[in-house]
């Protein structure tokens, strides 16, 4: 049975593995393992940075995502951002993300969160279709970034 839960530090190794696999799958980017370890640990050490959530299938973590927080002065409330979404390939297209999204949306509503947002690779059409099927909309904002 698949359940959704907040991740705990014991899940860090699988989350690290998922992050490295996702970077390669989406951008053919090899991450620096020690940096990813420190980055994931930083979330567990300071929950003001975010919260990891996992889909657990009878003790096996099959998906994970990170929720980070954005303060909206327009709404006087936080907006939750979905980041680092990864579902094991053998579990894709089986409603795992839909289940995670629904669970987290319910949590957000209980906590007075103003909304949920995410960004997606422009070429990741299957993910875009999934998000649209959940009632999410592509907004009128375009994302710009500076990363080093």
Q: What does this 3D model show about the protein?
A:
There is one protein chain. This protein is α+β, with helices and mostly antiparallel strands. The protein has one domain (2-133): 3-Layer(aba) Sandwich (Aminopeptidase), CATH 3.40.630. The chain contains four helices and five strands. The chain has helices at 12-27, 33-45, 96-110, 125-133, and strands at 2-6, 51-57, 60-72, 77-87, 115-118. It has a five-stranded mixed beta sheet. The protein is globular. It starts with a strand and ends in a 15-residue tail after the last helix. The model has no long low-confidence stretch (mean pLDDT 90).
What layout of secondary structure does this protein have?
Elements: E1 2-6, H1 12-27, H2 33-45, E2 51-57, E3 60-72, E4 77-87, H3 96-110, E5 115-118, H4 125-133
Task: Name the descriptors.
globular, 5 strands, Aminopeptidase, 148 residues, five-stranded mixed beta sheet, alpha+beta
What can be said about this structure in brief?
By secondary structure, this protein is of the alpha+beta class. It has helices at residues 12-27, 33-45, 96-110, 125-133; strands at 2-6, 51-57, 60-72, 77-87, 115-118.
CATH homology group: Gcn5-related N-acetyltransferase (GNAT)
User: How much helicity do the residues have?
Assistant: 25-40%
CATH architecture, by name, is 3-Layer(aba) Sandwich
Class, according to the CATH hierarchy? Alpha Beta
Rg, Å, rounded: 15 Å
Percentage of residues in DSSP E strands: 25-35%
- Continuous helix count: 4
Provide the number of structural domains: 1
Structural class: alpha+beta
Largest sheet: 5 strands, mixed
- Uncertain residue segments: none
Distance between the termini: 41 Å
Mean pLDDT equals 90
Let me know the number of strands. 5
Examine the coordinates and then state which fold CATH places here, giving the name of the CATH topology: Aminopeptidase
Q: From the structure provided, what is the oligomeric state, counting identical versus distinct chains?
A: single chain
- Outline type: globular
What string, H for helix and E for strand, traces the elements in order?
A: EHHEEEHEH
């Amino acid at each position: 049975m698949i359940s959704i839960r907040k991740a705990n530090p014991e899940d860090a190794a699988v989350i690290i593995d998922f992050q490295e696999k996702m970077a390669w799958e989406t951008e053919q980017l090899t991450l620096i393992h020690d940096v990813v370890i420190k980055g994931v640990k930083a979330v567990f050490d300071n929950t003001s940075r975010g919260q990891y959530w996992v889909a657990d299938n009878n003790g096996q973590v099959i998906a994970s995502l990170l929720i980070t927080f954005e303060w909206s002065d327009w709404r006087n409330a936080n907006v939750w951002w979905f980041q680092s979404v990864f579902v094991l390939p053998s579990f894709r297209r089986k409603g795992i993300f839909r289940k995670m999204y629904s669970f987290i949306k319910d949590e957000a509503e209980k906590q007075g969160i103003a909304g949920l947002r995410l960004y997606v690779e422009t070429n990741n059409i299957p993910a875009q279709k999934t998000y649209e099927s959940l009632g999410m909309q592509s907004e009128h904002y375009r994302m710009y970034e500076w990363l080093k």
